[in-house]
Structures are given as structure tokens and as C-alpha cells.
Amino acid sequence: MTMPPLEKLEKTSHAEAHSPAKLISFNVVIGVLVIVAHGGALIVARLNHDSRGPDIRALTFTLPLALYLIVSGLLTRFTRFSVKKILKQHTLILLLGSLSILFATTRDAISNLAEHNRYTLNGFFVFLVAYPFYLLRQTYLLKYHHYWMVDKIHIIAGSVAGAVYCFMIYKMFQAA
Fold this sequence. Notes:
By secondary structure, this protein is an all-alpha fold. It has one domain. It is built from 7 helices and no strands. α2 (about 20-50) runs antiparallel to α3 (about 55-80).
């Protein structure tokens, strides 16, 4: 049995599973979801003058970043902006969001904020943590994809997020 030539191995590698344009489209959808969720929470918090509501400072930080995801993603579709440069910028923005979500949820689970049933987590949390690490692999770490940790970085991040999710659910049931 002969081995296929190296060129064919590189082309069939799963390290480049999705095109940059498709990934940017995913990022635009995430930006729209953030605008809807955080924009709605900001409006409700402003109308109710509720001090127990969402952290207004965090919302005013995430809304412009989500708007940037949407506008820059649409500009790459309709103009000659560099798709790879915009994808790298999206990666950094989403990675920052991913790490902040993971940190905040871990902090809240450890400090027993789950007792207040403030969170309604779902499996989407795991996706929101893992997807930016997938983008990191596809943009900044693509030349290192032959290392198993780099190739599986999104799975590792998703596993950590899944463990945090399970711990948070455990704390919520423990408080009930």
C-alpha cells in the first residue's frame, strides 16, 4: 500500500475545515445574537432602574464589539476588505469574550452566586467558549496544527467549559 503524496495530505487535513468567509458569517450571527441579548438587557435595566440587573458596564463594552463584528463582517462580504485580517480581529474579540464568560461563570460558581439562580445556562455556553478557540486554531495557530494540543484546542476549551457548566448546575441544584 502506497502513501498519498504530501500535497494531498495537506489539502485533506481537517485543520482548514471551513473557509474564512463562512467563519466570518458565523461571527456576524454571533454579533447579532449579542446585540439582541445584551441590547435587550440594557434597555430593560434602564427602564426598570434595577440595580440587581445586568452589569451595565459589561453591556456597554460588549455592544460596540458586537456591532464591530457585524459591520466588519458585512464589509468583507460587500467590499474588498481582507477576509483573513478581519477574521483575525474577530478571533481576538471573540476570544476575549470567551475568556471573560468562562472567568465570570467560574467565579460565580465558586462564590455561590449560583444559589440565587441568577443564571440560566445552557449548552450554548460551551459553544461560546469553544468556538473562539477554534478560530484561534484556524487563524493564529494554523501553522502549528500538527501539534495535538493546538489541533484539539477547541475541544480542550469546550471540555473545560463543560466542566464549569456541570459545576454550576450542581451548585444550582444544591441551592434548591
